[in-house]
Amino acid sequence: MPTLTIDNQPVTVAEGTTIIQAAERLGLVIPHFCYHEALGAAGSCRLCAVRIEKGPLKGIQMACMIPAQDGMVVTTLDPEAVEFRAHVAEWAMTDHPHDCPVCDEGGECQLQEMTIAAGHGTRRFRGLKRTYPNQDLGPFIVQEMNRCIQCYRCVRTYRDYCGGTDYGTFGSRNRVAYGRVTAGRLASPFSGNIIDLCPTGVLTDKTFRFKCRSWDLQEAPSVCPHCSLGCNTLPGARYRELLRVKARVNRAVNGFFICDRGRFGHGYQNHPQRLREPHVDGESVSWNDALAAVHERISQTTEHHGHGTVAFLGSRRATLEANLLLGQWAAATGCTRTVYECHPEFDRIARTVAARLGDQRRSPGDIQRSDFILLIGAEPLAEAPVLALAIRQAKRNGARIVILDPRPPQLPCAFEHLPLTPEQLQLALEQLATKKFKGWTRDESTTLRNLGKDLTAAQNPVIIGAGALLGAAGIERLFDLVDASSPAARPCGVLVPLAGPNSYAAGLLSNGGPDFDDLLDAILNGMVKTLVCLETDPFEDYPQHGRAQSALAQLESLIVLDALPTQTTRHADIVLPTTVPVESDGCYINHEGRLQAFAKVLDPGLSVAVTGGGDHPPRIFEQSAPGNLPRPAWAILAEILKLPTETAALRQQLARTDNRFAALTQIHRAAEGEIVTAIGIPPRPQDDDGAVESSVPGSLQLWPIDTFGGADIFSTYSVHLDPLRDEPYILLADEDAKQRGLTDGAGAVLTSELGHLKVRVRCTATIPAGIAFLPHLLRGATAGFVPGGGALSCTLKSVEGEA
Amino acid sequence: MSPRMSEYPQVLFKNRVPGETVLIDGYRTTGGYTALEKAFKELDPATIRDQVKRANLRGRGGAGFPTGIKWSFFPADQPGEKYLVCNCDEMEPGTYKDRELLKADPHQLIEGVIIAAFALQTPVAYIFIRYAFEDCAANLDRAVAEAAAAGYLGKNILGSGFDCEIHVHRSAGRYILGEETALLNGLEGKRPNPRSKPPFPAVRGLFGQPTTVNNVETLANVPHIINHGAEWFKGLARTLEGAGTKLFGLSGHLERTACFELPVGILLREVVEEVGGGVRGGRTFKACLPGGASTPYLTAAQLDTPLDFEPLEAVGSRFGTAGVTVFDDTTCMVAATLNLIRFFARESCGWCTPCRDGLPVVAWLLDKIEAGKATFDDIDMLKDQFRNISGRSFCALAEGAMGPVAGLLNHFEQELADHVIKGRCPLKKK
Amino acid sequence: MELLPENQQEFFRSKAAAIAHPRELVIDALRAVQSHHGWVPDEGVTLVAALLGILPIEVEEVATFYDKIFRRPVGKRVIHVCDSICCWTREGEAIFTYLQEKLGIAPGETTTDGVFTLLPTCCLGACGDAPAMMIGLTTYGPLTPQRIDEILAQVRAEVSA
Ligand SMILES: Cc1cc2nc3c(=O)[nH]c(=O)nc-3n(C[C@H](O)[C@H](O)[C@H](O)COP(=O)(O)O)c2cc1C
Ligand code: SF4
Ligand code: SF4
Ligand code: SF4
Ligand code: FES
Ligand code: FES
Predict the structure, then answer these.
(1) What is the H or E stretch that residue B288 is in?
(2) Which of A662, A664, A660 is nearest to A651 (CA)?
């Protein structure tokens, strides 16, 4: 641990820390362009010059390139260094178009800041400026090359860090430019990060372009709601509209990065179909009338049918606060059937994870440091995209990545892949744990046996698996394998992406209670007459749509709190409009058990762009904003329960009533969130072990799966993500396609118990024969095919005349 | 020919006949490949490295780093992949000695490469050659084939158990490829930006493996050192600390512009007045670049400087590649420097700011001064650009670009001022 | 026009398969396409990537760095005129002007008959023979207007033959 002196202040840092990082520890920002904590040093911009007065290399040196050494004496204020830094800024600005007034980066531009910090103010160079044509990089990112300072951060982000393959550096001398070989959308699902990492206005957010100056934005620290990983974000809004999302730093979770789903999937907040007013029996009513109606229906139900005939359904996307309050409300009505997840298989998985994760939980930050990552039935790019980025960093650090999965893996790094069928995955999980290999070809057993050995030998292994293919039984086996691979000295890590941003909380809260299947039985048996749904859509999310529909149709009252229309709100007797996450404070617990708070960015309300019809200022003047009736679900529930409707006081109350969540009182201050260490109750044992029924000859085993395009409700309501959404396709083995006279790209009709569906064929050699995959498009053509409900049997025929 | 040419021992050029290329038979008749036989049969790698070190052979690529010392850092005994790379990028204006050597006598290099590869225990060697030297590349292809046929290349050379293969890599332009780490990126098929050092190529070079990079002329000297010994080699130089002969490429306003092999330490005056036949048309010597485009100018006052590393450093310049470009008294040194800076700015790889964006500023200033549109503020700005680019770039290219600017500011300040005062170039005929 | 004859494509494919770092062939492959096709079009970049099993972006990043890889159409012969210091001392500028006048084109342009493209280049390593130029892969110097006339006539004859 070397101790050095920078500007007369001593600082002790870890071995390998560079001078620029050591200075940062002292709160000294040495001007820099090319250095970035996540990307490291390139030494190209030369802005970070300091003088080393004592040390092995004396004189003017680049602070980002030189590791701190014991006894080093550094000054950042040396006149030569100061003069040089001003020159670097001057050079960087020679070709700059000076168009800051119309540049979206203005106000948060590192070039502006560093130019000032470096002391360059007056232009001396009067020669001709070099100019560039721009390239169309697709719907997300605008390029304005003339503003480039050639810091190479974008390529280092896109290619090196994110593993993208279609963006690079062209040319040489002062004509270096960046882009794709041909114009078009950047293909990496992490493309938007170059917007954050580019220190200038070359790369800006196209969905945000010219909407607002950055200093006019309302911003607050937030957490991405689009998957269970819980990336930290900084959404920005103005005039009652969420305009953009940037990554916010959380070194344990997402580092400096988010995925394009999280970044560009913000259109839901201002979606024209947002639920804006309380409704009772299809009539728009006031909040007072709506809450009175809720009260009345619930008392009526209990009066007519007895205690316990009202049931409550919480959810993976409602906040922890709201889910907790729902539980309190249920208890108050004498309800014994509170369920927190409407997909029973995902419910079991969440409970298993909450019960068994313990100290073996691994964050993406931990995963970057792993030396052996085994993915079994997981597709990070769909289930928790930023996890794929963490795996890539592990690979860059030398880790071995092995994937057991029937699908062709999409990871943005090199890996070893063994295509096993879903049944074989179960077998592999079991036998890797018992180390007895049966039922394999000789090659397969050797591979698996070696894999088992390597897993044992690894220093810091992590096993990752997800529910869509493994099911609850598979996830239990996965934990058995983790236990079997965890000698006391070196526990094996595990990560299981869950169904939604707050699934972990749902798993903890269920406390051994019934699941949604039990609840549906109770409804069908007439034991439950009224159901309260908290931001959940059992009509769509429960895998067997028919069963859900017929059960829910028997209810006397369906009371739904939600922000966007769903099948469930359409069937509801009472609809209470809630806010979306950016419109309220709240907490989620991510899939590693990390409790994270987000803060309100903006109040709900119809955006000025809508109400003003393009006029500015809008011509309607009222005391309150139009469309501002939605309220945070927790605030509605707190009011019903006569609890405080102010965040801090409410969190105090919740922490007192349930001490597993004691961290709630402090959580808004925790930079990296707080791990909830409480252990959940595992699901009841189940006889069905997820085996697939043997199928009719000529049929395929069809597995619905999620894709990056997003199967969460928020992304499906975001138009910006449309280019990422696949049209329905079926993915199958070359030989299966050939047998049916189908080729890659051909049109086909898929027939299953859910009827007929037109799909496009995608085939590859690596998929095992007999199985096929269908992307789940929530609210879309394949809505009925919910992942995690096991496989369906289907047949596939070619369509004449389809190309 | 210079009357005194016969006084200069010819080692590298001893076989040279203008317009002809020596093939393997011709090469062998004057002792070619005897050093190789000796090395493989009588010497072990460590002894060869030691001899080269004792001979005080200094790199001929421009930096002049002692070859023996460079080789002593090389993990020759470490098992695994290792590489020897011969640098024939030769793109610094005024430098054309490697080309002359390869046009005349390519086997010298092949023999040198094989001995060096043996000394460093690198079974694979690359010769990196620039686009414009297709004539030399063809000579090398042929020489490699001849050497292989003669059993000097391939498996188990001369029964030594040592294998060696040589690849001739043809490049596609750009001066920066001559910088050794940029060259390695270029060989790997990556963007040829220089790499940061450390790690040095001896630790992590080509394909991430230990690599030694040497210039053509450096390696061509090796067989002669093996044959005649370190003392003989040192004795070839005219200075005490110097060693060997040197290929001098003469150019500019001289009567004779050609490449000559001359003793290290020969006086600049002798080179200009005798070997070069004096300034063209009987004009007066004004200045010269003593060692290629990146070396600060010398003036007539420095004609008696011995051309060797230390003496040239003592007068504020560098030996560089020993490409001597002479300017007569009609030359505008601002215009000459502008030409040089334009070269460096155009050949910048674009990695670091002082070079990529700083050199165009210097070119703009010089252009303005030369056009007579500058003020004394511009001369001050030229000085502050010089001060801030020197020693501050990522690699030595921009550093080299400041060489002529240093010479201009040191020796021709009055000429700069005259441009401002007269509002035009004082040397341009009207 | 064909980018690269099949036998050469096969040569690169099999060599790439046989070596540890196929990317090292990228300049060779680009030069092969260029010498066959005259210049490297977008499809040439994709072809080289496919032959070597590397990404098109990796090829393009390299192709655009080097000045002797032509990513835009050029005439049948490219004339590279040295504009560096030694040629400059020996009337290189006048020679460049003469060439422009003689060919009726500015630097970067191609003659209307499609035979010559004129480009400046840095030192050709022919400083002893200054002023110098390179046509295709052949270097010429020292140049005088008369020499240039002869050389151009000779190259034109070769091209049309
Ligand atoms: C911009 C630049 C260009 C260079 N060009 C060459 C060159 O063309 N040939 C060469 O041998 N060395 C060149 N060098 C020097 C090499 O980096 C390296 O020092 C040399 O090849 C080592 O060989 P040596 O020790 O035998 O001289 C160049 C260096 C720089 C910074
Ligand atoms: S585009 Fe932005 S990130 Fe990329 S080099 Fe230019 S300024 Fe840097
Ligand atoms: S990985 Fe998940 S949490 Fe992170 S930005 Fe993407 S969708 Fe949001
Ligand atoms: S000094 Fe910088 S820009 Fe110039 S060639 Fe070297 S690395 Fe490239
Ligand atoms: S920040 Fe150190 S060189 Fe760019
Ligand atoms: S300067 Fe023209 S060939 Fe060297």
Answers:
(1) strand B285-289
(2) A664
How would you label B396-410 residue by residue, b for 16+ Cβ within 10 Å and e otherwise?
A: ebbbbbbbbbbbbbe
Task: Please give the backbone phi and psi of residue B371, each rounded to the nearest 5 degrees, phi first.
Answer: -75, -5
Q: What is the DSSP letter of A616?
A: S
Whether the link from the prior residue into C131 is cis, omega within 30° of 0, is yes
Distance from residue B138's CA to the centre of ligand 2 (Å): 42
Q: Rounded CA gap, B197 and A496, in Å?
A: 42
Is it the case that residue A109 has pLDDT exceeding 60?
A: yes
Distance CA A424, CA A721 (A): 35
CATH code reported for the domain at A3-93: 3.10.20.740
- DSSP symbols for B265-300: T-BHHIIIIIIS-SBGGG--EEEEESSSTTSPPEEG
Query: CA A27: distance to chain centroid?
Result: 31
* pTM for this entry: 0.96
Residue C131 Cα to ligand 6 midpoint, Å, equals 7
Distance A333 CA to ligand 5 centre (A): 63
pLDDT digits (tens, 9 = 90+) for A50-68: 999 999 999 999 999 999 9
Write the residue in A88, A127, A172 that is nearest to B353 by C-beta: A88
The H or E element spanning position C125 is: none
**And the tokens for A621?**
């003047």
pLDDT for A692 beyond 60:
no
Contact B302/B259 with Cβ under 8 angstroms? no
Q: What is the pLDDT of residues A655-690, one digit of tens each?
A: 999 999 999 999 988 899 999 999 999 999 886 554
* A203–chain B nearest CA distance, Å: 19
Within an 8 Å CB–CB cutoff, is residue C25 touching chain B?
yes
Task: Supply the CATH number for residue C11's domain.
Answer: 1.10.10.1590
Sign of CA dihedral A617, A623, A625, A627: negative
Q: Which range of residues forms the domain containing residue C143?
A: 77-160
C82 plus C133 within the same structural domain = yes
Q: Which CATH number fits domain A279-347+504-675: 3.40.50.740, 3.40.190.10, 3.40.50.300, 3.30.360.10?
A: 3.40.50.740
Instruction: Supply A626's token pair.
Output: 């139009």
Task: Kindly indicate whether the domain formed by A358-495 is annotated with CATH number 3.30.70.141.
Answer: no
Cis check: omega of the bond before A408, within 30 degrees of 0: no
Pairing between β-strand A586-589 and β-strand A594-598 as defined by DSSP bridges: antiparallel
Q: Which of C46, C55, C61 is the closest to A170 by Cβ?
A: C61
Residue C71 located in a structural domain: no
What's the average model confidence in pLDDT over A781-793? 92
Q: What is the CATH number of domain A700-798?
A: 2.40.40.20
Cβ neighbours of residue B162 closer than 8 Å, sequence gap 6 or more: B40, B118, B121, B123, B156
A338 membership: H or E segment, kind and range: strand A338-339
Mean pLDDT, residues B370-374 taken together? 97
Looking at the DSSP assignment, which residues form a beta bridge with residue A62? A49
Q: Given an 8 Å threshold on Cβ–Cβ distance, is B171 in contact with C86?
A: no
Q: Smallest Cα–Cα separation from B360: which of B375, B345, B382? A: B345
- The backbone torsions φ and ψ at residue C47, rounded to the nearest 5 degrees and listed phi first, read -65, -50
Q: What is the pLDDT of residues A144-166, one digit of tens each?
A: 999 999 999 999 999 999 999 99
CA nearest to B166, candidates B128, B125, B207 = B125
